[in-house]
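Message: Study each token:
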Amino acid sequence: MSIDVHHLAGRPVIIGGGIAGLMTALHLAPEPVLLLSRTPLGADASSTWAQGGLAASLGDDDDPALHLADTLAAGDGLCDREMASRILNAAPGAIETLAGFGVRFDRTPEGTVRLGLEAAHSRRRIVHAGGDGSGREIMRALVAAVRSTPTIEVVEGLEARRLVVEDGRITGVLASCSTGPVFLATGRVVLATGGIGGLFHDSTNPLGSCGQGLALAARAGAIFADLEFIQFHPTALDGPCRPMPLISEAVRGEGAIIVDETGRRFLDGVRGAEFAPRDIVARAVWRHLADGHRVFLDVREKPGATFARQFPTIASACGKAGIDPARDLIPIRPAQHYHMGGVAVDLAGRTSVPGLWACGEVASTGLHGANRLASNSLTEAVVCARWVAESVAGSSGDGGKRATATDLPQPDPRSARPLLSRALGVTRDSEGLKEAVRALLPLVQRHDAASDPAAVGLMIAVAALLRQESRGAHSRTDFPHHAAVARRSQITLDAAIAAAREFGSSPMLESVA
């Protein structure tokens, strides 16, 4: 690859080619912008794999206040109410925006948008596109829109490795491609890099999503929020395939039930049963598996004969595993699915580092709290992309002096993956977290391919160790109850390293119990 970086100097740089990155670029038009994607656009983005769609209060029996109430309940006391209210009030308009970009939403025979139901939602408000292929359809339309916008320069096969910071603010991006290192001079960078699934053995995310954006922000000195909150989806297809195929919550919304090998609906004693928030269902399934049972999703009666038509992607995954959902139970187990924590941002997506914004899963807006309400994530990405673009457009920054384009190693999560998988699963405890912290610290200090994934893992493990309570997706067997006061956590990489050395003596890092 050969790119002329001189004529690109000063442009805003968007790192990531998923829905958050594409929408930010489109909203910045006609300002010239550079969009970096380490793979062909959309090829390895979690957005493309999204099944559930977007949550928006479009029904006659619904409104943003009800959507907010459901979000706050799922978030288990940790949502930022102001941010959540602002995002959810903008959600219906975001559906119109996507339709304007050519997204073909599923509609009723009368032409209105068809609304689905998912767990912990009190109303039908899930907007799908292409059944369970919502992410794929949205990405199709947005990629086409980006490629037809002349002011958006897309560079594929270029991976950001470091953010250059001078005098406390962003001045450029160090990237790498097949022909070597590249320096991009810019004072405005947007992180839209997705999540952390590649740091776990069992995940529904692309394996290439291993927290690269979090590592970039960490090395730049950014503040993070709520890193300990990692959502495990309760119904991943249990088999040898990695990443694990997801079985959307929408399947339960159409009547599917969860049973064990005896046919018993063991969630009957759980408030909400199959429609309880994801963290509650995931823990119930996890405990039942730990007790020696097998767990299945039963779709034979509901949705029944219409399953393959309603959920073609899931039906195909089952078929590849030798399962006929019309006749067979579908084996399931929890798998890492979404990261509620991320780079701390304000209402405009600004981070604590001047010149750096974050949007999508890499950011922590406060919408999701301790446990994301189903289908709020794509909504958040679409809504916040507009605000990020408006903030970036209203800022100036041409970058600093030309830096030496150092060839840094490509991040390799294989050393950190077993450590995080053991310590930061559906349930955690002090002993396991401390063991992970002790093992991750030397990896961080090696400054090789393992150090960036290890740095992300270290921050998460330290944040989880210091939250001495159970709340939402963070479940401590040694601290099973809520703390008296719900507080969001904050951490930096330097603080995590200091805490790892002394297990909490750093003055920058206080327990959030």
Remarks:
- The first strand starts at residue 13 and ends at 15.
